[in-house]
Amino acid sequence: MLVGEQVTAYLLVLVPEGDGRGEELTEHAATICGVILGRDRVIAAAASEVRDDLVEGLLSGSARSEEETNRWAQHLGYDREVDHRVVFVALAGPPGDTEQGRALVQRAAVATGRFFGAQVPGTIISVRDAEVVAVLAEPEPRAAQLGAMCVQRIGALFAGVAVTVGVGGVCRQPARIADSYEQARRTAEATQRLGRHGAVVVFDELGVRRLLFQVPDVGELRRFAREVLGGLGDEYLITLRCYFRENNSPQRASRILHVHPNTVNYRIRRVAELTGHDLDSYRDRLALQVALEILEALGDLP
Q1: Could you give the CA distance from residue 203 to residue 165 in angstroms, rounded to a whole number?
Q2: All residues at 6 or more sequence positions from 232 whose CB lies less than 8 Å from its CB, including other chains
């Protein structure tokens, strides 16, 4: 039986021997079954479309009131007693905008939606052409952990598709879903723009990098870091980062780096000599710290 251009079912009609109405009965039964199947498909398609509209409404924050937002969330099964995070998965195909590449990305997007649905049943999911959005309940399993699992899974299934994941901030009230979505989307897109495909980045953990991610010219960020840090080798970069993170304490940094405190002091003096920056100057320290944050955001730190 055809519904549209698809074979939706096969019908077997048993007619007593000698009954000449076999063809008539078959045609009649096929017509009835086709109408029923077609109706069910239309109803299912309409229900799916309504659900998609509700999800998009929550993500965009387009409801006219908080009451309407709460009603939409309730229809989608959102639990207002549990914290949630929005996960935004950005998918990119092989170099070159080809029809085959676009089809590959679309299949990967469908598989990504199924992945989240299987891992956390009842998750609110929106699948687009080259991106997937999931509203995940916290705290278990954590959104970042699922994001990492998704990167591995989709990467293994679809060679050539790059997966980048942004995780928004915590939301509980349905009206906050749109904020978490916007944070996750901006984080994933900025991470993609920086060339860090395969990364899982949590908005809450970005710190000052939230501002760096707003700079559209990645080359300008790299130039600034290169000008500030000069040609420092990995050993000096690692030591400087650890030194700053330990609030300029050679003792604490030495324990983490497994070297003597005098070694840390020596490397820091060499950093000052090689870069021309005075680590006793607030502005010079700030420039060095921002440069390190840029390298870390770009994935260029060892």
Answers
A1: 11
A2: 240, 271, 274, 275
- Tokens 């700030």 correspond to what residue? 286
**CA 127 to centroid of chain Cα atoms:** 12
Tell me the whole-structure pTM to 2 decimals.
0.71
Q: Which two tokens stand for residue 42?
A: 């239309």
Distance CA 148, CA 77 (A): 25
Asked if residues 109 and 128 have their Cβ atoms less than 8 Å apart, the reply is yes
Interaxial angle between packed helices 282-298 and 234-245, expressed in degrees from 0 to 180 and rounded to the nearest 10: 120
d(C-alpha 35, C-alpha 59), whole Å: 36
At 265, which amino acid appears?
A: N
- Judged on CB neighbours under 10 Å (0-12, 13-18, 19+), 253 is buried
Helix axes 261-275, 250-257, angle to 10 degrees: 100
pLDDT tens digit sequence for 82-117: 999 999 999 999 888 788 989 999 999 999 999 999
Cis peptide before 94 (omega within 30 of 0): no
